[in-house]
C-alpha cells in the first residue's frame, strides 16, 4: 500500500544553543499549505462541495482536477475530495486526504467514517474497526450508528469467513403448479394439418398438481481472499406430485464455484454436474459451465460478458442428447443496497446426432434481475425475461400448401416472471416464498401454454 504520509521529521540545528538544554525543532508530518481558505477561490470550493453533496460525480471530478493544486490541504476540500475518491472506489488514494482532515480536526467524524470505510474495502479490518469504533463512541445519529454497526458486522463476518467452513442444509417445500408437465393450453381449435388431426394427445395436455419437495445440501467454502472463494457443493432433491400421472423426480447435483473480485475487475466460474431421474420417463446427465467477467465501467456500473454451455446426455431412450449454448452482455449496478442486473443473451439448442427442426432453435433473450433487501432480515429477488425463439425448419405437420408453409416456421415468444421473498428468521432458519409465471405464444397455436406455480419453503442450515 502506498505510504500515506511523507514524514519529514528533520531536526533543525540552531545557530546558538543554551548551555542548560537543547530543544530541537521537529517538522510535523505535513504542514498546512501557505494559502488559506480565505486566500483561495472560495466560490470554486463551495461549488465543488455542492456538486459532491448533489452526487454529481462527473462534474465534481472535472472541477476537482482544476482546483486541486491550490485547494489540496484545505480541510473542507480534503473532506469532500476524499468522499469523491470513495465514490470512485479509489480507496487507497482517499486515505491520505481523509487522514489529513483528522490531523487538523480530530472531531470531524464524517471524515473518520469514510476513513473506516476505506480501510474496510482495502481489507485492513483492524484499522477500520479502530476508526469506526471511535465514531460509535460519540453516540452519533441513529442513521449513522446503523451504518457503522452494519460495517462492523460485515468486518466480523469477513474475518470469520477467512477460515474454511462446512455448511449442511435441509429444505422442505410445498406448492402448486397449474401446468406441471408443461402441456399445451389452447383456447381454440388446432390449425388444419396434412394428417387431419385436430385434437391434442392426453400426454400434451396440461396437468395441474400440488407437489412436495425435500432437499439436503452440503457446501465446502474455502476463501482465497477478502472477496474471492472456492466452493464445492452437493445437493439431493426429491419432488413428489399429488397427480398420479406425474412421476416423482430425483436430482443429484455436484457443483463448484470460483469467484474473484478486485477493485475494478471481478469474475465467477460456476460448474455443475446433475443427474436427473424419473420413473420410466427420464434419466439424463447434464453438465453446465459458464464464465462471467465484469469490469467497473463508470460509478457503480459494472459491464462484462458471459459465455456458457450445457450438454445433456441421455441415459435411456426416453430423452434426447442435446447441447445448449449461450453468450451474453452483462450490466450490473448497485444503489441503496439494491442490486440490478441486465443480460442480453444469444441462446441456441441443438440435438446431437440428428437434425430436428421441431426441437432445435436459436433465440435472443433479455433478462432483468433485482435483488432488494427490504429489511435487515427480509429480501426480495425478482427476475423478468423475454425470449424470442426461432426454430430451424418449417413445421410441416401444420401446413396445408406452399402459402401456409411460409407461415409455419415456428416462432415462440416466452415471457417469464420469477419472484422470491426470503425471510432470515435466524442465522440458521430461512423462509422462502416463491412465485413464478410463464406465458408462451407461438405462431403455431399447438405450442402455446401458460404456467403458474407458487410454493413455500423452509430451510435449516447447520
From TrEMBL:
Record keyword Signal present: yes
Signal peptide coordinates: 1-18
Presence of keyword Iron: no
InterPro entries from the UniProt entry: TPR-like_helical_dom_sf, TPR_rpt
Alphabetical UniProt keywords: Signal, TPR repeat
A Pfam family hit: TPR_19
TPR repeats: 109-142
Name of this chain's protein: Tetratricopeptide repeat protein
UniProt source species: Reinekea marina
Lineage of the organism: Bacteria, Pseudomonadati, Pseudomonadota, Gammaproteobacteria, Oceanospirillales
Amino acid at each position: 500500500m502506498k505510504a500515506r504520509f511523507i514524514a519529514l521529521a528533520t531536526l533543525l540545528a540552531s545557530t546558538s544553543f543554551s548551555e542548560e538544554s537543547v530543544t530541537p525543532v521537529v517538522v510535523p508530518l505535513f504542514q498546512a499549505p501557505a494559502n488559506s481558505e480565505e486566500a483561495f477561490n472560495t466560490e470554486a470550493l463551495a461549488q465543488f462541495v455542492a456538486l459532491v453533496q448533489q452526487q454529481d460525480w462527473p462534474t465534481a471530478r472535472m472541477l476537482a482536477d482544476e482546483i486541486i493544486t491550490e485547494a489540496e490541504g484545505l480541510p473542507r476540500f480534503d473532506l469532500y475530495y476524499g468522499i469523491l475518491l470513495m465514490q470512485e472506489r479509489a480507496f487507497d488514494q482517499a486515505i491520505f486526504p481523509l487522514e489529513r482532515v483528522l490531523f487538523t480536526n480530530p472531531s470531524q467524524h464524517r471524515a473518520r467514517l469514510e476513513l473506516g470505510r476505506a480501510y474496510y474495502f482495502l481489507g485492513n479490518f483492524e484499522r477500520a474497526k479502530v476508526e469506526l469504533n471511535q465514531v460509535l463512541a460519540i453516540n452519533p445519529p441513529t442513521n449513522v450508528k446503523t451504518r457503522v454497526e452494519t460495517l462492523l458486522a460485515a468486518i466480523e463476518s469477513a474475518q470469520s469467513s477467512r477460515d474454511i467452513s462446512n455448511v449442511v442444509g435441509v429444505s422442505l417445500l410445498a406448492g402448486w403448479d397449474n401446468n406441471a408437465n408443461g402441456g399445451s393450453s389452447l383456447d381454440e381449435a388446432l390449425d388444419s394439418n396434412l394428417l387431419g388431426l385436430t385434437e391434442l394427445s392426453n400426454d400434451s395436455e396440461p396437468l395441474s398438481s400440488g407437489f412436495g419437495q425435500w432437499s439436503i445440501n452440503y457446501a465446502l467454502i474455502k476463501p482465497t481472499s477478502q472477496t474471492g472463494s472456492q466452493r464445492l457443493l452437493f445437493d439431493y432433491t426429491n419432488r413428489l406430485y399429488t397427480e398420479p400421472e406425474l412421476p416423482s423426480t430425483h436430482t443429484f447435483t455436484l457443483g463448484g464455484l470460483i469467484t474473484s473480485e478486485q477493485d475494478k475487475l471481478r469474475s465467477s466460474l460456476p460448474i455443475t454436474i446433475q443427474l436427473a431421474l424419473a420413473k420410466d420417463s427420464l434419466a439424463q446427465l447434464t453438465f453446465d459451465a459458464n464464465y462471467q467477467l465484469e469490469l467497473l465501467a463508470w460509478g457503480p456500473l459494472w459491464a462484462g460478458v458471459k459465455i456458457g454451455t450445457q450438454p445433456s446426455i441421455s441415459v435411456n431412450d426416453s430423452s434426447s442428447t442435446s447441447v445448449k449454448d449461450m453468450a451474453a452482455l452483462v450490466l450490473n449496478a448497485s444503489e441503496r443496497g439494491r442490486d440490478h442486473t441486465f443480460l442480453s443473451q444469444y441462446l441456441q439448442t441443438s440435438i446431437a446426432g440428428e437434425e430436428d427442426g421441431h426441437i432445435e432453435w436459436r433465440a435472443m433473450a433479455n433478462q432483468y434481475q433485482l435483488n432488494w433487501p427490504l429489511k435487515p432480515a427480509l429480501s426480495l429477488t425478482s427476475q423478468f425475461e423475454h425470449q424470442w425463439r426461432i426454430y430451424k425448419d418449417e413445421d410441416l405437420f401444420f401446413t396445408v400448401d406452399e402459402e401456409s408453409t411460409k407461415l409455419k416456421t415456428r416462432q415462440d415468444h416466452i415471457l417469464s416472471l420469477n419472484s422470491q421473498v426470503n425471510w432470515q428468521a435466524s442465522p440458521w432458519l430461512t423462509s422462502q416464498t416463491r412465485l413464478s409465471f410463464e406465458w408462451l405464444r407461438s405462431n403455431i397455436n399447438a405450442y402455446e401454454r401458460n404456467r403458474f406455480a407458487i410454493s413455500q419453503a423452509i430451510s435449516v442450515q447447520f
